[in-house]
C-alpha cells in the first residue's frame, strides 16, 4: 500500500462534496458500503487493480455520514480513517465534509452525581445536579445509550455550570421490551407518569409542575416521548424528540383520540436529511408530516433538520438546542437566572 493512501477522499463540488471510499484487500471476494446515507442498504463496491475496492457518492456541504465496509459478509471499520463514532450496534467510521462542525466533546459529570435504582425491573440512572429543589425533570428513553453514546449526564453538568440551562434532574430509563413499550403503549406511559415520576419525587424535591417535566428519546424512543406528552399532559408537557420513528405509528389517529391542552405542549423534533430512507422505506418524510400535524393542532414545535443520519453523534450534537429550548424558553427563564446555584 502506497504511503499516504487515505479514505475517504473528499473533493469539493458546487452542491457540497464528493467522497470516494477505498478499501484495500486483494483476497476479498466482495466488499460493500453501508451507511446512514444508504438507509443501511449494502452497496457493492467496485474492484480496481491491486485489490483496491472503491465507492463514491455525493454529499451536501457540512454533512457527516457514518459507514462501515461489509467484507465477505463481515462488517468492518475503515482502516484508513481515524474518525469513528460509537453506537448501540458498535462503532462506525465517519465521513466528514469540510463544512461539518463536530459537537462539543463528551465530559463526565463534575458537580453532579449519578445514582442507580431498579423500579419494577427497569434500571434507572438518575443524574442529580448540586441543587435539586424545584428542579425540572427529564425522563430519558434508552437511558443506557444516552449515557454512554450521547454523554448526556456530562452535557447537563457542563451546561448547568455554564448557566445555559437551570439545574435539572434527569432519569435515564433502560427499556425491558423496547418495541412494545415505545410504540404508543398506554401501560408504559402510565407507568412513567404514575410510578416512576412519583418515585423520583418522593426522594428528590423536583418541581411538581408538569410544565417542568419532559420526555426525551430517539427513533422509537422519540415515538414514546411524543406519545407520552399527548397521553399524559398531567405529568409531562415537554418532549425532546430525535429522529422519531413516526412511520411505525398512525400519528394522525393518535391525535384524533387524545385531548391534551395543545397550546401547553412544547415539542422539539429533529431529523437528518441522510434519513430520507431507512431499510428501504421512507423515514424522514414521516417526520416532516408529523411535525406539520402537531403544529396544526396547536402544539408549540421546534423543528431542526441537518445533513446527518440516524446515530448518537448526530443526536448528541442537537442536544444543546433541545435542552435550552425546552428548559429555558419553555419555562420562561431569563438568562440571568438559568445558572443560579
Give the topology, please.
Blueprint lengths: L8 E5 L2 E9 L6 E5 L7 E2 L1 E3 L3 E9 L3 E8 L2 E3 L7 E2 L6 E5 L16 E7 L2 E7 L8 E4 L2 H6 L3 H11 L6 E5 L4 H5 L3 H18 L9 E6 L1 H12 L6 E5 L8 H7 L8 E7 L4 E2 L2 E2 L1 H13 L3 E7 L5 H18 L5 H4 L3
Parallel strand pairs: 13-14, 13-15, 15-16, 16-17, 17-20
Antiparallel strand pairs: 1-2, 2-6, 3-4, 3-7, 5-6, 7-8, 7-10, 9-10, 11-12, 12-14, 18-19
Q: How many helical stretches?
A: 9
What does the main sheet amount to?
8 strands, mixed
Overall geometry comes to: globular
Distance between the termini: 57 Å
Please tally the β strands and state the result: 20
Helices and strands: which structural class? alpha+beta
Low-confidence stretches: 335-341
Rounded to an integer in angstroms, the radius of gyration calculated over CA atoms is 21 Å
Strand order of the largest sheet: 11-12-14-13-15-16-17-20
- Mean pLDDT equals 93
Proportion of residues in β-strands: 25-35%
Q: Would you list the SSEs in sequence order as H and E?
A: EEEEEEEEEEEEEHHEHHEHEHEEEHEHH
Helix content: 25-40%
